[in-house]
TrEMBL record:
Keywords: Disulfide bond, Hydrolase. Pfam families: Cutinase. Residues 186-197, 214-243 have a biased composition (Gly residues). This is Cutinase. Residues 186-243 are annotated as: Disordered. One of its GO terms (molecular function) is carboxylic ester hydrolase activity. InterPro entries: AB_hydrolase_fold, Cutinase/axe. It comes from Puccinia coronata f. sp. avenae.
Amino acid sequence: MVGARGTTEMQGTSMAYTPMAKKVLAAVPGGEIYDIKYSSSAEYVMTPKQGASSGLQYIKGQIAKCPKTVFVLMGYSKGAMVQTQILASKDLPPNKVVAAVLFGNPYYQGGLPQNKCAAKTGKGIAAAMMVRIPPQYVSIVFDCCLPMDMICQTMGQMMTHLTYGGKSASDAQAFVVSKLKAAISGGGGSSSGGPGGNKASVGTGDQSSAKTPGGLGGGGMGGMPGGGMGGKPSGGLGSMLGGMGGMPGGGMGSKLGGMGSKFGGM
């Protein structure tokens, strides 16, 4: 189970998905939790790309050691950007990811089939980046956004972004367990063809974050033009670092850096 934590969260844990992951492993023994090594600083252009590259290196390294290994991806907030970029990468080995859970995803788009929680409409603050889940992975993705989460809904409040526990986590746990059991029994994961009888386990490793995205697909964060965010008055996604579309509080960097240091989060 490969996790990507949110901004300012400590290496090795996330308040959004770590408790869920432990319950999944209790229900489906034989796996381990690995936290992608990347910077959880309040920077949202290069570090998600570096995290995706680091995660891809880890996944490919584990497959080289144990070809039957399958993976569950987990991402919270900024970490959801990392995992979405992994899924969108042409470098991701096929049929190895059997489930992916995204909490408070900045790339969130309402009305998509992978959306599993209470929010049904709206867009995340990075939706204009156009980083999308490839069709072959839609059926294995649990994209969870809560109403009034200002990160996956743009408008709202930070406190909602810090509450991905309870029913959201329980539903995600059940989703992942079902996908893992299907993989173990030969039911497969993604719609492009499952891993067959792959063993649902992940080895451990220590991969440092790469400096380049290594051929990430799906429109890497760094390659986007500096245009506007859907008409927001403060300019493009680059304004994440200084101001997010005229929102109060100084934009994404300040919104996430301030509360993130206390609670984790984006």
